[in-house]
């Protein structure tokens, strides 16, 4: 019973142990009180940061390194970063290892198609048509897509069966 209560507490999930260890390192220990206060929130932010950085880096590499059209590069970066994001959130945040990987991947990717549409339309208008710098446009789009992705993941993709 006590173990069940531990896993239901959003700040005490077993998969958070790796993050607990990192925050216990000597140089990082100064942020431990803030981390302990809202652990689940900070871990979500960290995983989202990794996903966001991967999307941004892939987009820049595809557009500036490989000279791929902004909209196409954004879609390619989206596919790669969505896979990275799904794996990170599935295993380290939502702890869904007992559920169907394929079904949740399809739901996750389908739900994120909406934010892909928002990003792609914005890039089509501001980068491909108006010739704004894609790095600036992507930076502006990051908070918009992060908020939308959180809401979609929490409400649609990783919702527990008891909550439905």
What does this protein look like?
There is one protein chain. The chain is mainly α and 164 residues long. The protein has one domain. The protein is 75% helix and 0% strand. Helix 4 runs antiparallel to helix 5 and helix 4 packs across helix 7.
Keywords:
disordered N terminus, 164 residues, globular, single chain, 0% strand, mainly alpha
Write the layout of secondary structure elements.
Elements: H1 2-8, H2 17-23, H3 32-37, H4 39-65, H5 70-92, H6 101-129, H7 134-157
Helix pairs in contact: 4-5, 4-7, 5-6, 6-7
Helix-residue proportion: over 70%
Structural class: mainly alpha
Coarse morphology: globular
Which value, in Å, is the CA radius of gyration? Answer: 18 Å
What is the N-to-C order of secondary-structure elements (H for helix, E for strand)? HHHHHHH
| Portion in beta strands | under 5%
Largest β sheet strand count, sense and barrel closure: none
The helix count comes to 7
N-to-C CA distance: 23 Å
Q: What's the count of strands? A: 0
Q: Can you give the mean pLDDT?
A: 82
Poorly predicted runs are: 1-7
The total domain count is 1
Concise overview:
By secondary structure, the chain is mostly helical. Helix content is 75%, strand content 0%.
